[in-house]
């Protein structure tokens, strides 16, 4: 069965960095099928891994964002913690890529930003063993570093998978906010080289949530408080901004982004309307004859509070998630697993 995965909403703040007044959960909010065990400090961003050789094996990984004592946690489908990497120094967002050749072994990887060290970290899946010799420095030579958002782009060619990390930071100027790094193997370790700087930034807040559509070749990222930007994922296609959308659909912050892939070319872009405790949903393929026009098709209230990171999967998972699921960070040091069928029903009613 072909694996479809997606990434990205990111950073809920339960110890003092959120908005000062939380919106109440709506009476008609979608309830999660599973709530994970709590992490010690502050959940931020999840990603979903599916075993390419056995699609019944699914694992959710998520960051616990805290200085010095943060970590990367792995959860089973019942929300139980089954593995962890600790300590990490303020890990922020995480994403997953499949099929990287590392030391002669085809390896799935999880890559996260570690703000406290100005690095990205690379771990094997599913065992979460380090593959990066302590980390890959990012934004070297820049006045502002502090990596936050990350999404992975996989480019397939005759030699195998070429994997890129698209990395955002806490703050920067109005242009070239994002750096793109090609990940490569050297003597059994993963390293990175910068291949591109791009991306507009309004400057009001920050850019944290990023997602890559591998099949269609696009990058989307949340410019908090402003809108969603769209660019090509392939560095050779240039730095033209393809779309800016969702500017009037959010209460305040545009946050975590996930892709729900109905097929290789259709599905939904799902974005956390953070201060409204809801998700805005847009057509992945755009409007008829206008692939870069993304108009909202639904807004779905959820029980997750101040969701900062999310991921989605269209693969059926047991009886709880027959159409796949959405995983969302929530205040309370947890992640929520939602049945996608409920979201699909909301879209169909529109």
UniProtKB/TrEMBL annotation:
Coiled coil: none
InterPro entries tied to this protein: 6-blade_b-propeller_TolB-like (IPR011042), B-propeller_Phytase (IPR003431)
Occurrences of domain BPP (ranges): 20-347
Organism superkingdom: Bacteria
Pfam families in the cross-refs: Phytase
SUPFAM superfamilies (alphabetical): Thermostable phytase (3-phytase)
PROSITE patterns assigned to the protein according to its UniProt record, in alphabetical order: BP_PHYTASE, PROKAR_LIPOPROTEIN
Keyword terms of this UniProt record: Signal
Signal sequence interval, chain numbering: 1-22
Protein name listed in UniProt: BPP domain-containing protein
């Amino acid at each position: 069965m072909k694996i479809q995965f997606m990434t990205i909403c990111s950073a809920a703040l339960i110890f003092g960095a959120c908005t000062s007044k939380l919106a109440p959960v709506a009476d008609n909010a979608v309830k999660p099928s599973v709530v994970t065990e709590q992490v010690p400090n502050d959940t931020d961003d999840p990603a979903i891994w599916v075993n390419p050789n056995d699609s019944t094996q699914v694992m959710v990984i998520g960051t616990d964002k805290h200085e010095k004592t943060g970590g990367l946690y792995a959860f089973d489908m019942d929300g139980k913690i089954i593995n962890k990497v600790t300590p990490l120094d303020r890990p922020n967002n995480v994403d997953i890529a499949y099929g990287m050749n590392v030391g002669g072994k085809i390896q799935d990887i999880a890559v996260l930003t570690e703000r406290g060290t100005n690095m990205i970290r690379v771990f094997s899946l599913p065992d979460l063993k380090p593959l990066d010799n302590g980390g890959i420095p990012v934004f070297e030579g820049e006045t502002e570093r502090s990596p936050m958002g990350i999404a992975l782009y996989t480019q397939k060619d005759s030699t195998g998978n070429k994997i890129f990390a698209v990395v955002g930071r806490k703050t920067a100027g109005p242009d070239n906010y994002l750096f793109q790094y090609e990940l490569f193997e050297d003597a059994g370790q993963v390293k990175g080289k910068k291949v591109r700087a791009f991306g507009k930034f309004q400057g009001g807040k920050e850019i944290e949530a990023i997602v890559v559509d591998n099949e269609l070749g696009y990058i989307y990222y949340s410019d908090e408080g402003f809108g969603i930007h769209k660019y090509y994922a392939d560095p050779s296609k240039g730095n033209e901004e393809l779309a800016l959308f969702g500017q009037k659909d959010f209460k305040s912050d545009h946050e975590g982004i996930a892709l729900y892939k109905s097929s290789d070319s259709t599905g939904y872009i799902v974005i956390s309307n953070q201060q409204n405790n809801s998700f805005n949903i847009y057509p992945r393929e755009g409007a008829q004859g206008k692939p870069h026009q993304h108009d909202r098709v639904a807004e779905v209230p959820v029980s997750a509070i101040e969701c900062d990171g999310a991921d989605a999967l269209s693969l059926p998972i047991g009886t709880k998630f027959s159409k796949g699921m959405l995983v969302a960070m929530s205040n309370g040091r947890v992640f929520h697993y939602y049945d996608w069928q409920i979201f699909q029903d909301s879209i169909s009613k529109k």
